[in-house]
Amino acid sequence: MSFLELKDIHKSYYVNKEEFKVLKGINLSFERGEFVSILGESGGGKTTLMNIIGGLDARYTGEVLLNGKSLRDNNEKKWDAYRRETIGFIFQNFHLISHLSILDNVMVSLEMTKLSRKEQLARAKELLEKVGLKEHIHKYPNQISGGQKQRVAIARALASDPEIIIADEPTGALDSQNTKEIMALLDDIAKDDKLVITVTHSQEVANHGTRIVHMEDGQIDQDDHIKETFPVSDNPEVLPTKRLGFGATVKMALKHMRYNLTRNILIIFGASIGIFSVLLMLGLGTGVKGYINHEIYSQVNPTSVQVAQKTNSQKPAKTEMTQSDADKFAKIKNVKNAKLGYYASGATVNYNKTNAQLQFVQTKNSTMMAKNLKKGNQPKSGEIAITKAVAKKFNKKNPNQMIGKKITFYLPGLKANNQPVTMKKSLKVSGIVADSNGPVITFNTIKSLYKENNVKFYPNFVTVKINEVGNVDKVQDKIKAYKNSDNKGKAQYQITGVGSIVDTLNTYIQLAVYVLAGIAGISLLVSAIMIIVVLYISVTERTKEIGILRALGVRKGDIRNLFISEAFFLGLFSSILALIFGYLAQWGINAISDSAINYSLVGITAGYATFGIVISVVISLLAALAPSRRAAKMDPIEALSYE
Ligand SMILES: Nc1ncnc2c1ncn2[C@@H]1O[C@H](COP(=O)(O)OP(=O)(O)OP(=O)(O)O)[C@@H](O)[C@H]1O
Question: Which one of 87, 503, 528, 627 has the fewest CB atoms closer than 10 angstroms to its CB?
Answer without folding.
Answer: 503
